[in-house]
Amino acid sequence: MNPYASYGLIVTGADFVGRQDAMRSVRSRMFTSLAPVSIVGAPRIGKSSLAAQALETYATGTSPAGLTFVPITITVSGADSEQSLFRELADLIHEWIEDRGRLTDRLQTPYAALEAAVTWDDMCRCLKAYLRQVRRAGYQVVAVLDEFDAARNVFTRAAPFEFLRTLAHEEKFRVGLITTSRRSLGEIVVKSTAEMSTFPGIFGQSVTVGCFTAAELTELIGRSPYRDADLRQALSGWLTLETGGHPFLSSALLSVLHERWAFYGPAPAETLDRGCRQAVAACGQLTVDYYRSMLELLREENRLGKLLEVLFGPQETAGPLDAERMSREGIIKPTDDGWTAFSESFGQYLLSLEDTRASDDWRLWRRTEIGLRAALSSALENAYGDAWPVTLADSQSRLVGEWRKRQERDRAFGEATDAGSLLDYTHPRELLQVMVLHWQQVEPYFGRAEAEWRQRIELIAKVRNPMAHNRNAGTSPTLMEHFRIACRDILHWLAAAAATRPAQNA
Q1: How many CA atoms, within 13 angstroms, populate the side-chain half-sphere of residue 39?
Q2: Same domain for 203 and 218?
């Protein structure tokens, strides 16, 4: 059994996971006071499922005013024109009432007039007349306008936005509105028309959907038919690292695992790692496509640069409010002294982009890192021959295992090839560990005392992670200057060692 096979689709009922705070917000605003609700979040983060679950849970029975709820969902991206969306609203209401055998002449007459209307003004007038009769007949319409981003293309002027505002605002035919979108309503309106609209002003604070919390991720894993506690704990740790609790990505990886387990049985917790890495590889293109869609959205909103500034610095245009918004959206998450990408995988993907680093300090480090890896790779090959990776795997198996995980993740992204060196996936302290353990064999390639190398690399390691994640608490002007000196020392030492090395060792 694979309870995750429908990942990517709208889920409700028993398949719906968590979101209790968001559900309470929707209930408080919409189903208590009929205040319009805007649900906003990144692609495939669960906005539509939240709206559908809210309708299924709360739009039943009668409202506090004693009116029978009529739950309606319209996918805005499917609308052909301004009028078609509003006509679909009336069609779905009429169909809902008809299916329950409750149609009357007082409803049939204005509905027929609406069907005959041609112009925009006539359509608006007839729809309001129809909705007044629906209200008088004892019904309260609650309409989810899903994928509302499409309104920027469907609505070519301010009038449709203002008409929606009228429908949601006037008591005599009030329609409860819930919109779901990737962008804020203000941004959608601006993108659709140069005219101003007061439509976003009636919504108040958006309900922002982000990644699952630890408890929600545990609940998602709890849908698995495999009950072993160690297995579930291992899955939780792996998904937290790999997806940051992203609902779509977590469900996709769980689906791949469960497809395989249906034939071969679940892997024991102690051997789960290999299966998880295979699942990551299988979902590689899906993950990359998702990251690209997320970045395209941020780029369109002129927020990609702010994301990179927050994560990698220097912060020139991004401010605290930008970071807080991206955190609510599940794009980044806070650390003790800064921000990091919502998952390790997304962080690595961002690092692969050419434009993620603008600072001279990062460029200096990259030159140093590449030179250091190349020198160590040559030194190990000179000492142990082409089988030097095997020697490393025997002497430092844990480290090599971690590098291979990083390599497989990059291969899933299409960023790695079999020709790449394992040392391409090392961090500074890991390079130092290899150097120290094999110092007698690699010393000719480095030309200085081990203690000098240890001092420089440990200082660089101290700065590198805070710098990579723009953590101000981890750096200072003095420390950064020592960092630059250490990088320049290493580059100079590597060049000098290469120049004096005997030809047979070159």
Answers
A1: 32
A2: no
